[in-house]
Structures are given as C-alpha cells and as structure tokens.
Amino acid sequence: MNILLTGGLGYIGSHTAVELIAHGHDVIIVDNLCNSKPEVLTRLEKIVGKTITFYEFDLREEALLDDVFQKESIDAVLHFAGLKAVGESVEKPLEYYDNNVGSSVTLLRAMERHGVGKLVFSSSATVYGSAESPYSESSPTGVGITNPYGQTKYVIETMMQDVASSNQQLEFVSLRYFNPVGAHESGLIGEDPSDTPNNLFPYIAQVAVGKLDKVKVFGDDYATPDGTGVRDYIHVVDLARGHVAALEHLASGFQAYNLGSGHGTSVLELIAAFSEAAGHEIPYTITARRPGDLASYYAHTDKAAQQLGWSTEKTIQDACRDSWKWQSSNPNGYIN
Ligand code: NAD
Ligand code: UD1
Predict the structure, then answer these.
(1) What is the rounded CA–CA span in Å between residue 184 and residue 194?
(2) Distance from residue 10's CA to the centre of ligand 1 (Å)
C-alpha cells in the first residue's frame, strides 16, 4: 500500500516508516519540521536503502495537502503529526487545539474529498484520565484528563468515531500508546528532544551520556513496590510494528487498541536497567512528586493480541541497549 505518514519525521513516525517499508509498503511523509530535523530523512533512507518521498508543510495547509492526495495514490494514512508536550499544552492550550485538532479536521476533510477511508491515529493512554489501571479499551475515557494535550487526543478520537458512524466505508483505528522508549537498533534514529526532556527515559539517557547531572526521581512514597512511579514502557520498534498490524487488520468502523507491554516498571528499575546498558552508575536524587502524576498505570493488552495478532517482543533491556547506542553515538541528537 501507499501510506501517507503525517509527522513521519518525528520519533515514532520515523521508526514506523522503517517497519512499513520492511513489510513492503511505500511511504510518503508530510512534516513541517516543527519538532524534527531534515537529517532524519537522510538517516531513514540509509536504513531502508531507498529514497522516501517527503513534503515539508503544515498539515493545516489544505491546498498543499490536496496536492499530495492528487499526486500520490494514497491508500491509507497514519496520523502522527501533533504537538505532545504536556506542560506546554497547559500554557498554550489554543496552540494545541489548533495544531492537533485543527490538523486532524483538515486531514479528515482531505481524505473525504479524495476517497481515502483508512486512517490510523496516534492516541495515548492519557485518554483514560482517572480510570482504574490496568486500562482496557472498554475502560471509561475522557474523565479526569488533566491537561489540554490529553484533551486533544480525546476530542480527536470522539471526532473519528462520529465520522466513522456517518459512513460505513471508513476504516478508522486509534492506537493508545503507553510509554514509548528506545531506538532503532542501528543507532541511526532515536528520540531527540529539542529542550531538556520532560519524560523519564530520554532524561535518563542524557544523564547517562553526561549532558545532564542526575535524574530527579519524582517521589518515592507512592503505593508501589519500591515507592516510585510505575509505567508501561514499550520499545518504539514494537510500537511501530503495532501500526503495521493495525493497518493490515483495518475493518469498517472505529476501533481503539492499547499498544503497551502489559507490564509495569518503576523509575528505580528503569534507572538500574539503563545503568547496566551504559556500563556505569547513573546518579539520581529523590525529589518531590510531580503534580498530576499517577502512582501506577499499565495496559491490558488482550484486544491487540487477539484482534491484531500483535504483542511486544522487546524488553526493557533491549530498549536501554538501543537507546544507549543512539544516545552515545549521537550525544547532541540530529545535527541538521
Ligand atoms: P514528535 O514530535 O517526535 O513527532 C511529531 C511530528 O509531527 C514532528 O516531526 C513534527 O515536526 C510534526 N508536526 C507537528 N505538527 C505538525 C503539523 N501541524 N503539520 C505537519 N507536521 C507536524 O512526536 P512523537 O513522539 O513521534 O509522537 C507522534 C504522535 O504520537 C504524536 O501525535 C503524539 O502526541 C503521540 N504520542 C506520543 C507519545 C510519546 O511519548 N512520544 C505518547 C503517546 C502519544
Ligand atoms: C507523561 C505525561 C502523559 C504523556 C506521556 C507521554 C504528565 C503528567 N504525563 O506521562 O500525559 O502521555 O508522558 O509518554 O506529564 N519521572 C521522574 N523523573 C523525571 C521524569 C519522570 O521520576 O524526570 C517519573 C514520573 O513521576 C513517572 C515516570 O517517571 O512516574 C514516567 O514519567 P514520564 O516519562 O513523564 O511519563 P508519564 O508520567 O507516564
């Protein structure tokens, strides 16, 4: 299939491009480079050994998007483009609603005009808000979401359901990611935060390589086995393969799937695993809890296993090894 990847030069989109090409698909990327670098394309082409069609523009540019649908014979769309910093979304909510929801409206309209009905969307476990973990796809969504970023994911899912209900020809899937980590095993592509990372895993990686002093562990008095927060970390290559599986099992209507490992790992366990991969101790200090954090959450993974035939294959150790390879060979991330 010819697959349009919006935001395809970002962290998850780039890893997914590699897996799609490995499965015989052709990819066409649209990205405005607001949170990625052109060098990602060069690295991707090196990994897959062929050129990849790339258009640089903002997805909200309706006329430019029409040109892409006219020129390329698109069979399906994977929609990664969006802003994703939780804290920034609290400061600039309109930017988040405009970019994330606005670009999704523009995309759905363009798909309708050009008769493309297959869509896979990058959602997040954040749509479960204050529901009880482990989350299953039938857990309540939309209640207790604490930030505009999470709300945009919920709004887009709702919109997809409404649109899918209006036309039986549409095949829409929302993938609810848990915590994506790791990098491609080549060390050529990986996560490259533009500022000091907010998320734990890239923060640990930057401490490991000496760019940051020590990890701040946000609280050790949670009701978890070692008192630190527990999350469901998923290797980005497993996540990418989840997209290939979702694409190959599309069916009429709207479906949501959790993409997680189903296992929880604590902050201290993750620091220990990364220390082992890096071959040296990673310094840390215990600090206050981060407001808004939950003690523990992880995925129920049965639905994706049964309906998509997909489950994770890689371990936390694999993620630490691959991320260390990426971080130590690219200490400053992508240069261009
Ligand atoms: P990323 O920032 O690395 O990638 C997103 C890409 O989209 C970037 O290359 C950016 O330049 C591009 N982009 C943003 N707005 C655009 C627009 N209007 N037009 C064109 N391009 C645009 O993020 P990622 O980690 O790869 O995440 C991909 C998707 O997955 C996002 O929608 C994100 O919200 C979602 N997600 C990510 C995580 C995570 O922890 N990384 C967790 C859950 C969900
Ligand atoms: C965060 C977002 C969530 C988003 C997800 C993307 C918040 C409140 N939630 O989730 O909406 O979908 O990222 O992956 O921002 N931690 C530390 N020190 C750090 C950073 C984090 O101890 O420097 C701890 C946290 O308290 C948590 C765990 O590490 O227990 C994971 O944190 P993080 O990587 O930010 O992910 P989430 O909190 O799951």
Answers:
(1) 19
(2) 6
Residue 190 Cβ contacting ligand 1 at under 6 Å: no
Does an H or E element contain 201, and which? helix 200-208
**Three-state DSSP state, 184:** coil
Radius of gyration (C-alpha) of the chain in whole angstroms: 19
Query: Which residues in 256-289 are b (16+ Cβ under 10 Å) and which e?
Result: bbbbbbbbbbbbbbbbebbbebbeeebebeeeee
Structure token pair of residue 1? 């299939």
- Best residue among 122, 135, 194, 323 to mutate for probing ligand 1's pocket (most ligand atoms within 8 Å of CB) is 122
| Residue 335 pLDDT | 87
- Of 190, 179, 181, the residue nearest 44 (C-alpha): 190
CA atoms of 245 and 195, how far apart (whole Å)? 33
> Which residues in the chain come in under a pLDDT of 50?
none
Alpha-carbon distance of 76 to 254, in angstroms, equals 15
